[in-house]
Amino acid sequence: MSAYEGLSSRLRTALCVSGGSMDLDVLGRTLGLNSEQLTRLVEEEEGRSIRIREQEGKRVAVYQSELRVCSERTRKCAGDCGKLHLCRYFIMGSCTRSPCKFNHSVQTPHNFQVLRQHQLEALGTKVLQQLLLQNDPSLLPDVSMRCGS
Ligand SMILES: [Zn+2]
Ligand SMILES: [Zn+2]
Q1: For residue 14, how far is its CA from the centre of ligand 1 (angstroms)?
Q2: C-alpha to C-alpha distance for 85 and 68, rounded to whole angstroms
Q3: Tens digits of per-residue pLDDT, 18-68?
Q4: Which terminus of the chain is more solvent-facing, meaning fewer CB atoms within 10 Å of its CB: N or C?
Q5: What pTM was estimated for this model as a whole?
Q6: Could you tell me the domains of the chain?
Q7: What residues form DSSP beta bridges with 23?
Q8: Contact status, residue 15 vs residue 61, Cβ threshold 8 Å
Q9: Ligand 1 centroid – CA 103 distance (Å)
C-alpha cells in the first residue's frame, strides 16, 4: 500500500466514523494534514470517494462510494450483482411491513461479501444506512434531492 492509498483509506475511515460527512477543517485536523496537504487530498479525491458540499458557509466533505442496494427483487437476483440485498424502507429507517419479505440484516454472507469489496465491512448498521442514503440517488426522497442543487 502506497502512502497515498493509506491516506485515502484513513480519509474514508474518518468520514465513516463521523457518520458519512465531516467539516473540511475538522477532517484536516483529524488526518493531521496542513491546509496545503488537505487541498491536495481534496483535489485528488473529489468525485471519487468524496464530494464537497457548502453548508452554512462551511465546506463539508461527504463520503461517496459505489456501494448500492440491489434494485432487483432479492428473489430474482442470482447474487452476483455486487450490491447489497437490503429492504429499502429499512435503510430509510421506516420499514413498517410486518413481516417484511425483504432483508433487514447487513450480516448475511452475501452482504458481508459486498461490504468487503468496498472495504466497509466494519461499519455498523446505522452508519451504513447513512452512507447508503447519501450515496444512492434511488433511495432519496424528493426533498433531499434538492439539497445538492
Ligand atoms: Zn442482487
Ligand atoms: Zn422491510
Answers
A1: 28
A2: 9
A3: 888 999 999 999 999 999 999 999 999 998 889 999 988 999 999 888 889
A4: C
A5: 0.71
A6: 3-63 (1.10.10.10), 67-143 (no CATH)
A7: 60
A8: yes
A9: 11
